[in-house]
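name: query_chain
kind: protein
chains: 1
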Amino acid sequence: MTATEIRQSFLDFFKSKGHSIVPSSSLLPDSPNLLFTNAGMNQFVPIFLGQRKPDVSKWPGAIPGSDTRAANTQKCIRAGGKHNDLEDVGLDTYHHTFFEMLGNWSFGDYFKREAIQWAWELVVEKWQFPPERLYATVYKPGPGEPSEFDQEAYDVWAEIFKRAGLDPTVHIRFGGLKDNFWMMGDTGPCGPCSEIHVDLTPRGDSQGKLVNAGSSQCIEVWNLVFIQFNANPDGTLSPLPARHVDTGMGLERVAAIVQGTNGLKDFANARISNYETDLFRPLLAALERLSGKRYAGTVPARQTELSDRSSQVAIDVAFRVIADHIRTLGFAIADGILPSNEGRGYVLRRILRRAVRYGRTLGFHEPFFFKLVDVLAETMGDVFPEIRARKTHVQDVIRREEEAFNRTLDRGIALFEEEVARLLGGTGHLPAAAGNLPAAPGAKYSRRNLPHFERPWAKYMVTFSTVQGRQLSPRARDIVLESILWTHRQGRWQLFAACVMPDHVHVLFEPQIKEQDATGKPVFWSVTELLHSVKSFTAHEINKLEGTTGAVWEKESFDRLIRSDADLEEKFHYICRNPWDNNVVPPTEPYRWLWTPDAERGAHASGVPAAASTPTCVGSQTLPAQQADEPAQR
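structure:
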């Protein structure tokens, strides 16, 4: 099936079940608390809250069915706030900033039994997914978690798997609050959810062990949310007067499975990648024509593989980033959201500039990104006509942004070359394409001091220690790592590795662009202000935590400016080995306060002893309220 056929099949199926087919809402949400529309349920929130009676059959553009049943395909962007997949895009084959969410809803109408039975009917009986490869999750609270075991959902799934000749004790998996309880916010409508996962291993014999284990060989494709409670400010739950169903299925993931397995017939030789589907292939083909380079579909095993921008891995990451980001920019601008320096407009500008920077990897130094809008309009204009209607406007906006940012990048590179030439005394010149700083003849670089300038896109390893070897408690180390990761996720630095030891901290990073000056020249976050931000915040929080006062950190040691790929790799491995080399933890145990991009994605961190090769990082995606308020002060 093509993606178009999958989408239409979904809508036709729920139309046959009496659902009104409603249009996708705009990516510009009604809710002031959202940057972008990030789920199909956003437009139905007033109904869930009881602020509006169910009336979906009468909505503009709806194909009427029932007022209390709806289905659609919703444009979604997840690139900010609670749901932010931006930094993962390109590094794997299934994360996106823009995606389509297929969904069906019940507003006080049907509930768990019908939702589960229809999900099985569509996926197994209509689309022919092998039932033995499917696993369902059911909510089972852990200690201190809300509500109770979802017996109702379990019983329905048990009946279904038994009828299919499958063992429910194998094919039904349990999840706690993190995976199987959905909440709109700290208060408001909420309830347990039940997911459908697909085993993509060659023989389909994982026995459910890969469900929610962070493996690309077992993917969630559909989440069925059962909204039945209201979360109160005191932390208690109250039953809602009406119970609702809210489901979401990623079209890109379903298309990847169907198309990557030859129509679900060949899992042994599967090539399952969202970017290998007909949703992305036209964009990748256009990029191949424009760049003269080939997309091979490789994925980096570790961050250091991206150091060589001419490698196939780096080229493939660039292809994926650009193909994803043009969808985000194209549809957002078509819906009236423009790149700017504030709020959601700033997020769009960041995404666009990220695509342009990756374009340099493909050899683009002139505007190219806007040219992909033609492909987007041609391939997706039938289902989302606004992209065709506003195509010229979208192209003009993107082209102007590209031109401005290219000037910024070129100015930054020219300034860097001038500074290097000055430091070399006119004896050398750094080519524009070079990525590393040559050593000045006769120059001596102290281990504790950097040269007196900071260049664009330079990488640094910095170490700072506690005052008088003060030992940091586990919670204090949590605070430090959370602050380092917050700075990374805010786009202030790109983090390659970080390790919070009991009495010192190592950080390997690359400062990012902070703003432009009055002439349009880029201004980068300085190393000093980045470190001051982390150290001042964490010192305050650690003192508050431990009831102490005074200095927490010594002056940082600017260990070195990274001057080569080999240097970067050496420092990366040094940081990753640090807890074990210093006997902080036994060789057989992981270290909780070591972070690398691989560790965050659940992969093995390079350089860590094999027996302890799965270091974990603090799972918090946000900082306490005090840190959230920090940007205005920094």
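note: The chain has a mean pLDDT of 85.
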